[in-house]
Amino acid sequence: MVLRVTDMGVARGGVPVLDGVSLALGPGEALVLRGPNGIGKTTLLRAVAGLQQALSGDVEAAPEGLVYAGHADGIKAALTVTENLTFWAQVFGTQGISRALEAFRLGPLAHRQAGALSAGQKRRLGLARLLVTGRPVWLLDEPTVSLDTEAVAMFAGAVRGHLAQGGAALIATHIDLGLSEARILDLGPYRAAPLAADDFDGVFL
Amino acid sequence: MSLNALWEYANPKKFIETTDRVLPWIAWGSAITLAAGLVWGFFFTPDDYKQGSTVKIIYLHVPSALMAINAWLMMLVTSLVWIVRRHHVSALAARAAAPVGMVMTLIALATGALWGQPMWGTWWAWDPRLTSFLILFLFYLGYIALWEAIENDDTAADLTSILCLVGSVFALLSRYAVNFWNQGLHQGASLSLDKEENVADVFWYPLLVAMAGFVLLFVALVLVRTRTEIRARRMRALEARERMQA
Amino acid sequence: MIALLARDMRLAVRAGGGFGLGLAFFLIVVVLVPFGVGPQSALLSKIAPGILWLGALLACLLSLDRIFALDHEDGSLDLLATSPLPMEGIVSVKALAHWLTTGLPLVLAAPVLGVLLNLPGPGFGWLVLSLALGTPALSVIGTFGAALTVGLKRGGLLLSLLVLPLYVPTLIFGAEVARRGAEGMAPGTPLALLAGITCGTIALLPFASAAVLKVNLR
């Protein structure tokens, strides 16, 4: 197992949204989180990434094994594509960004300022960051926003390549990625029950 | 009562139930002691041989100054309790105490100005004690503004309690810095164990009563405000729950 | 960590305004003072150390909200928080970058502005020394304030309200060093105290800033 989440409950804005979520990812596995807007996909991913405290439950993962990609890509407009990626490579202590440039076909854009990229190109740059981190477990929140079909296929290819190398991915998304091998976890059944009135009096939430 | 039993009152429900019973006693106690101390102090003590009747403002000035500092200390303790044990009532009590402490600081500053005008010939001087109180007032302002600015209650509680800790250190530093910066005209502390040196008994006893009155007043106000905060918090939680179910 | 510092410096140079804005503000404050208090050089030279310190402090304050705001908006802060860098390291590097882009230029510009205010001759060295010792504390304290207000939409004013009271001891000791230096007195005691405050804040405050930032990211 590269990632195991047991009995996790999370809250958004102080209100519990999910409860008792358990999941496990082995090397080479991908898991897609499904569920309507507001069910807590982002919150769950952030809790797994350690950006947020879970109400309950445990996350077991290899130390320094996770990398998170959220709605915003953390791209600096004033830096070039290469500089943006090199920075993240240095932060994560890895070498070489050529593989990442190649996987998302950013080569021709390598020396362009990131501010001059289109929304889809920026997103590709944001996803290319995942490859330079060299971490095995990707936590992806709506990775395909503003990507066209071709770029979605490019992304699916990158995920597949990552899985083939023994990586894993936990993806929250609405669209079909074309990743037939990915398992699907519907979060609907894990919706947190509203607290009973008695508990409520005790601790307000 | 053992220390463990004390934590029971960290439960909001228990807190409300207990304060329901205790609050009237404290409120009436505060009203009676305050009235007694102030009436005694204002009308039944002689004028000071140097300061005349202006000295009587001491019965407002000293207790409010005392509570201005004690309120901050109480906020420091409750903030620590929130950080360590995460009891909501503790965080809300800190929030409730801040405006009370701020008003006490204002009273101390205003009565000080009223007293200073006839005594020193000026409403305001950049004396270390006065300046420190002004800085304390600014700390209260910042603390309250931070509480108001943040929507999520737990986030606000975390941030303000850390601000309170850091602020306490800097407030203490400022106190020494200000002392260093200007030696000042303010008389020494009016209260100490060897009170004979500072204040004569005729002034001292009514002052003690007035201080007890201010302490009780502070406790009563903080309890009332904490209850309000608990209920406001509960209302927000209920609304959030309703939105979830809708 | 070095990569983060290099990136922030590069951004400050490229995005423009990083170095210049604080300096320009400092210049304007110093130029406005004689308009406000009159041109008598005796008066100006008496208040020069205080004005220069206050100007530097306000110039520092002006750029504080940029420390985390940009990184928060574009999501870098989330990504940095999940990176191998410790949060304490991130806030320290951010404070260092702020000092290099704001504090250091102020220190270097202060003697020039001292001439405008008739700062007495012996005061120049002490002014530069006090600013060099004091401005790092301003950056570190400011980083704490910036971390407190990072998620807020109109956090700028609140940031000033929170940070200014925390600046009091640094300002008192820093300006005292410059004043005593200018008046030819021995500035040893306030200098030691100023150095103490700077060392203390650099050693301890990043822990508070990191804790606050973690709370704000969740």
How would you explain this protein's 3D organization?
The complex is a heterotrimer of chains A (205), B (246) and C (218). Chain A is α/β, with parallel strands linked by helices and 205 residues long. Chain A has six helices and eight strands. In chain A, helix 2 runs parallel beside helix 4 (119-133). The longest helix of chain A is centred in the C-terminal third of the chain and has 16 residues, at 149-164. Chain A is globular, with a radius of gyration of 18 Å. Chain B is 78% helix and 0% strand. The N and C termini of chain B lie far apart (45 Å). By secondary structure, chain C is an all-alpha fold. Chain C has one domain (2-216). Helix content of chain C is 83%, strand content 0%. Chain C has nine helices and no strands. Chain C starts with a helix and ends with a helix. Classes of the chains: A alpha/beta (205), B mainly alpha (246), C mainly alpha (218). Chains in contact: A-B, A-C, B-C. The A-B interface holds A 13-15, 17, 194-195, 200-205 and B 11-13, 88, 152-154, 230, 233-234, 237-238, 240-241, 244-245.
How would you concisely characterize the structure shown here?
The complex is a heterotrimer of chains A (205), B (246) and C (218). Chain A has 205 residues and is of the alpha/beta class.
Descriptive key words:
heterotrimer; A: alpha/beta; three-stranded antiparallel beta sheet; 6 helices; globular; B: 246 residues; mainly alpha
Topology:
The complex is a heterotrimer of chains A (205), B (246) and C (218).
Chain A (H helix, E strand, L loop, with lengths): L2 E10 L2 E11 L4 E5 L6 H9 L6 E6 L4 E4 L11 H11 L6 H6 L15 H15 L3 E5 L7 H16 L3 E5 L10 E4 L10 H7 L2
Parallel strand pairs in A: 3-7, 3-8, 5-6, 6-7
Antiparallel strand pairs in A: 1-2, 1-4
Helix pairs in contact in A: 2-4
Chain B lengths: L2 H4 L5 H32 L14 H28 L2 H33 L7 H22 L3 H29 L19 H45 L1
Chain C lengths: L1 H14 L4 H18 L3 H22 L3 H8 L2 H6 L5 H30 L6 H26 L6 H28 L5 H30 L1
Helix pairs in contact in C: 1-6, 2-3, 2-6, 3-6, 3-7, 3-8, 6-7, 6-9, 7-8, 7-9, 8-9
